[in-house]
């Protein structure tokens, strides 16, 4: 049975739920019953689709089959679909009279991780990465669940057109893990070729919330992230005659220590920041002083000012130490900001508070939590950084089996994190909560006054 057919069945089921709701003389209860019926009816078909996405992941910039499936599903539901927006991006538009325009976004790409969950539908995919290395491929960040919830939401809203007016834009985004996709889709006319949204929404799987729960962060939700490569250059030679060299290993060691003062002594203590040296490589033999050492850093912050100052401090410190060591100017270190950098994701506070109210109304106080900002990255934030300053909000979707979550809380044993080879959402409650939450949020934005 097709997704359109299964959702048509849900309309019949919904009528029964609506009758019960009318008997209780509550229109809000009626729409909730219709959504619940639609979610329940759609899940039997969307569960296999979720497992198909999970078992056949594609790396960033290679989401051809995934984007084609997303496009086909949206077209079947009656959306006007455009493919290849900013690469493998997909945009589906459903116009339903005059009203606001709401955009819902999903990411589509997977990670170079070899899955170790042991699930019957685990990914066995292998491919070559951009450097030619053979790698496993896994949806270790929940994008497979994001896509399934996305399609469930599209289906529900297409069947509930009598309950809202406006324009619904569904955005399938590639290359989130490389922080390219949102930027490329905006550059390719996301807000000019297609209806410009009044609001943009997204959700993300949370590895530290029980399935059935949702979380919302007001303001900064995810961080500025910059990947930095530093090449420290010296003058190599024999380890027995160090005085005839300019040792880049010693200079690299000094640099690593000095970089720690950026956070501790150069950043306002009330402003979060992280400077992590994640990789250091130099030399090949015990008695050889090399010509160069390479460092790889990740810099994280929330405010644009802290981000700018941190990058400038890295450049100043590396150059200053090289000068102090007597390195010739033409051999000063080079500092390169990688193109996978992304700005912070800032949830519009008013919109975030609005969603908290919606979720508490639909799920109750005990299933809705206010979450703290994290230092992870998410390029969804780009949608709120254009000159239009569109209000955006990304919220968290619980994924952990409630019993396992409870055990972890009691024992202190950590749960598998995002990007872990062990990360695996529990499908049914995660999907049903996600589809219900996103549908409820969109309906509220379409039907409630600002």
Detailed description of the structure:
There is one protein chain. The chain has 450 residues and is α+β, with helices and mostly antiparallel strands. Helices cover 38% and strands 24% of the residues. It has helices spanning 3-23, 27-55, 64-76, 143-159, 181-187, 248-259, 261-266, 304-324, 349-363, 402-411, 427-447, and strands at 80-85, 89-96, 101-107, 126-128, 134-136, 166-173, 199-210, 214-216, 219-222, 224-233, 237-238, 273-282, 288-289, 292-301, 334-337, 345-347, 368-370, 392-400. Strands 1-2-6-3-7-18-8-17 form an eight-stranded mixed beta sheet, sandwiched between helices. α1 runs antiparallel to α2 (27-55). It is elongated.
Number of strands: 18
Spatial strand arrangement across the major sheet? 1-2-6-3-7-18-8-17
Alpha carbon gyration radius: 25 Å
Cα shape: elongated
Distance between the termini: 39 Å
> How much strand content do the residues show?
15-25%
The secondary-structure class comes to alpha+beta
* Helical stretch tally: 11
**Main beta sheet:** 8 strands, mixed
Give the overall average pLDDT: 94
What is the element layout, followed by pairings?
Layout: H1 3-23, H2 27-55, H3 64-76, E1 80-85, E2 89-96, E3 101-107, E4 126-128, E5 134-136, H4 143-159, E6 166-173, H5 181-187, E7 199-210, E8 214-216, E9 219-222, E10 224-233, E11 237-238, H6 248-259, H7 261-266, E12 273-282, E13 288-289, E14 292-301, H8 304-324, E15 334-337, E16 345-347, H9 349-363, E17 368-370, E18 392-400, H10 402-411, H11 427-447
Parallel strand pairs: 3-6, 3-7, 7-18, 8-17
Antiparallel strand pairs: 1-2, 2-6, 4-5, 8-18, 9-16, 10-14, 10-15, 11-13, 12-14
